[in-house]
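Teaching soon. Invent one.


***
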Amino acid sequence: MAPASPAKTQTPPERHRNLKNRADLHALFYPKNIAVIGVSHNPVSGIKYVKAHEISGFPGGVYPINPKYREIDGRKIYPALEAEGVPDIDMAIIAVPAANVPAVIRDCHKKGVKFAIIFSSGFAESGREDLDRELRQAIAEGPTRVVGPNGLGVYNQESRVNFLFKRKFELPGNISFIGQSGGTTARLLMSLDSIGIGMHNVVSAGNMMDVSMADFLRYFKDESKTKVIVLYMECVGNGRDFLAALRETTRVKPVIIWKSGQSDVGATAARSHTGGLAGSYQIWVSALRQHGAIIADNFEEMRDFAAALAVNQALPRGNRVGIVVSGGGVGVEIADVVRNHTLDVPELTPETQQKLAEFIPNINTSFRNPVDLGEYGYVPHYYGRALKIITEDPNVDVVLTVREPERSPWFEESMNIKNIDNLNILALQIAIKVGKPIYMNLSPNSDLPEHHSLRYAFRKRLLQEIGVPTIDYTPHTAKLLQQLVKYKKYLLQELQ
């Protein structure tokens, strides 16, 4: 059974649908000139886009438009797209009342605008099917491609296109994101930035009346700076085309998807948000998995999966996990979670166990797997040597290890060792050279501000300096590894 098809009003006119195959989205993410239609003194009107591009340092021209104003806060306001002084426009951002949007789209066609972003809402998602049909007809009448309505627009770290007022993101990144919620889009951008993970392209796509999720997937598939693609999706207009684009893309790059509308209430909320039909969640997830997607069930999983793959896209060769900890309890905990996600925790070879026993006494330790290094594991020299040996074990495909940076000051004092976190970083760098994926769990001990700061700083270093995927919540790590193993099998089958 295929995913549920959306209502007929979600299908663009035939003429316009045929144009989609020829869309080049480059000018959307790298526009030379931007027009903002519907600016006013209201700080949440279109003027916020003008300010956002001023803050981000957009090098092109930004042309505010509203026939009611000649200037706002010293900025020249143009009366229309066709006004003298307004050059060719690659992107028009539309922030006018919904009833006026179709006429503005027709103005964009006349001007030859390449892309229009409709920030305005009030169409099918608000029960205005009449306005929805009128807008679709207007879109079909000319060449301007449309993102939205009811979306924030696009962000590109390199070109400085931006939609967030008072936020300037400097970190380059390799993630491209498409979201059907402006709030979720901004939340992910800010959350990843706070831990040192930049994003390359971000799209708040709204209702996707014209440019579709499939269009964005195909563009990001071929875009060289995108290494990981992340989607937050509520409804999809053309399910067949989307799944075809997904399969084309997952053969080349990992795609993480959080599909909302998982309950009856959530599905109803999705319909009222984007104006489409969400379809059966279980059917959708089954289809997404069959087409190679990595599934996140909530925002936190989506964020953790995105951060992990942004720093290391290496796939485990198999499902055998080596667990390296200092403390038996956490080892048992992780082993249970890993096994509950159908991953294996194999016993290490006798040779590996013997190598470990040569320099770590058998006192409150265990070398079988999980490997409990006991108190010796807090000494970076012992930890690094053991981690490398375990990573080299032929029974191990991927390593999951634990460090607790909030405890580092204690061990520095008690063991008279300076800069333990630096030494742990060096130990990880040596083990990484073995060539197998290593994942880090920080096993939070405390939420005191000073301890949170230590954990936060260590995580940023792991992610930014050495590319070790770092996730606090063990089930997220196990779930991601489980899906990466399946993704590896999917690729092998697809590429045969």
Q: What stands out?
A: DSSP finds 18 helices and 17 strands in the chain. The chain has two domains: 8-310, 314-494. Residues 1-21, 269-278 have pLDDT under 50 and may be disordered. The two ends are 26 Å apart (CA to CA).
